[in-house]
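Notes, p. 3: input format for complexes.
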Amino acid sequence: MIQELLALSEQLDTDIQTLNDEQSIEAFRLKHLVKKGTLQTFVDRLRDVPKEEKPIIGKTLNEVRRKAEQAWTEAKDSIENQKNTTASIDVTLPSRRQRRGTTHPITQTLDKAIAVFKKLGFDIAEGPDIENDAHNFGLLNFADDHPARDMQDTFFLDEKHGEKLLLRTHTSSVQIRLMTSQKPPIRAIMPGRVYRNEAVSARSLAEFHQVEGLYIDKNVTFAQLKGTLVAFAKEMYGKDLKYRFRPSYFPFTEPSAEMDITCYLCGGKGCRVCKYTGWLEILGCGMVHPNVLRNCGIDPDEYSGYAFGFGIERVTLLTTGIDDIRYLYENDVRVLRQF
Ligand code: PHE
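Output follows (339 residues plus phenylalanine):
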């Protein structure tokens, strides 16, 4: 029987050589590995083998069987692998482009404005979005009957501990927080989110971002205010910028002004965007009102200061040419990818 086993082993070696496609692999299995295959017949015959020969024949049979099974599995795996690789990798396909995210246009403007003011020596100050009347209005010299205190302009919240709370309408509230907690000189900008009870349109939102600035020291002048704002505007809008200051009114500054720059669309000739004036308003500013200084415990005879404020969305529209403010909040990637 051992002779027959060795003959089978040789036969297996020859057959293993032929294992190169699915048919030959299947033929090999049917011939050798199934219940009625060559190997099983030897297993069946093992019963009649005399006891003394059993160990040696059993061992040889095991080795032969292992060889057959291993060769069959390997051949099968290798055919399968070939099939998979040819199916999933087509090296002629164009590669997929990896798109990188970018910072949102509002964040880009905010970052740039902050960088410019940092260079000019300003600190960054922040305060809460939920404010009380005093910080948002009262200490800023708003009269009790000022229209901004109307529900139509301001989002009021439920009273807490007898105090009227609201969503801040400007970051001037942070100016008050600085002046009541620090001694001059104070030089800081206050970036942040602000809220106004306005209908959403192409030009206005009910929630947007502002950067306000404050400088309090001895002998601060309007000329310094102008110098700072012109330097800032040139960094944001370009060196050749044309600008003008127009008298205006804010309860917390006196005198007050608004700064205009030439319309980006018509270059000053007059068009729909600038309402045919050739100018676009970009910010409000002025010398801090003596009442505000006094309200915060700063002596207006010793100190003076300037303040200014502008909307980040507004600047973003002007520098990107986006003509509807709502695009900035819709997060449409077709818009965002352009910046
Ligand atoms: N707080 C004003 C606003 O929200 C802007 C401003 C700030 C004007 C400081 C003058 C001085 O419109």
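The chain has two domains: 2-83, 105-336.
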